[in-house]
Amino acid sequence: MSRVGKYPVAVPDGVTIEIANDEIKAKGKLGELSAPISAEVDVVHQDNVIKVTPKRESKKSRAMWGTTRALVNNIVTGVSTGFTVNLEINGVGYRAAIEGKDLVLALGFSHPVRFPIPEGITMNCERPTAITISGSDKQRVGQLAAEIRAFRPPEPFKGKGVKYANEIILRKEGKKK
């Protein structure tokens, strides 16, 4: 069983924490984020450290202990340093470009795929085959990366498609005569 909840969350300089009702708010140089606090756990902020402890010894309390600690860590990290996901595009003629507030992808379809860039998220294309997605909210950054990858996931024979930069595609052998 994981013991993520027992580790305290360090609060870096420049981040202010506010705990009220069933919500924790963090404000830093990259914006402001909030996360819900489960009724099964206690969250205490003292000496630039946030500690999460379960209220009871039930299975639900222990599950929410680690979950709440992870959510708190994600908002503290998000407002201080942010999160980044890198995507790579493989395939002849496959490319990406930023046009205004849209990400335009050429992925072998009869038309270019236009993906609007939401508020609070920044996307860069250093090369036509690399996309960098950054933002303060880990869930939104990961979700946008997954949505872009879903337009043309990598196929196992040639590896063509959109993949995460650190993803390893298991290749299959083609047909034999």
Structural summary, described in words:
The protein has 177 residues and is an alpha+beta fold. It has 2 domains: 77 residues, Outer Surface Protein A, domain 3 (Alpha-Beta Complex), CATH 3.90.930.12; 82 residues, Alpha-Beta Complex (Outer Surface Protein A, domain 3). Helix content is 20%, strand content 38%. The chain is built from 2 helices and 13 strands. The strands form 4 sheets. It has a 4-stranded antiparallel beta sheet with strand order 11-12-7-13, with helices on one face. A hairpin with a 2-residue loop joins strand 5 and strand 6. The model has no long low-confidence stretch (mean pLDDT 89). InterPro entries: Ribosomal_uL6-like, Ribosomal_uL6-like_a/b-dom_sf, Ribosomal_uL6_a/b-dom, Ribosomal_uL6_bac-type. One of its GO terms (molecular function) is rRNA binding. Keywords: Ribonucleoprotein, Ribosomal protein, RNA-binding, rRNA-binding. This is Large ribosomal subunit protein uL6.
Quick overview of this protein structure:
With 177 residues, the chain is of the alpha+beta class. It has helices at 59-80, 138-151; strands spanning 9-10, 16-20, 23-28, 31-36, 41-46, 49-54, 83-90, 95-99, 102-106, 113-116, 121-124, 130-135, 161-164. 20% of the residues lie in helices and 38% in strands.
